[in-house]
Amino acid sequence: MMVAFRRLSILAGAAMLSACAGVIPKPDAPVAVPPTNPVATSALMLGARSASLAGLPRYERDDAAAALSAFVESCPVAVRRPDLSGLTVTSDWETVCAAARSHSGDPGDFFNDNFQTVRIGTGSAFATGYFEPQIAGSRTRRPGFHVPVYATPNDLERCWRDDIPDSERTGRAPLSRRLPDGSCTEHYTRAQIEDGALASSNTPIAWAADPVEFFFLQIQGSGRLISPEGEVIRIGYDNQNGHSYTGIGGVMRERGLLGEGPGKYPGSMQGIMQYIRENPEEGRALMRLNESWVFFRELTGDGPIGSIGVPVRGRSSVAVDPRFVPYGAPVWLRMENPAASGLWVAQDTGGAIKGANRFDTFWGAGEDAREIAGGMSARGTAYILLPKSAADRLDRQ
Question: The pTM is what?
Answer without folding.
Answer: 0.71
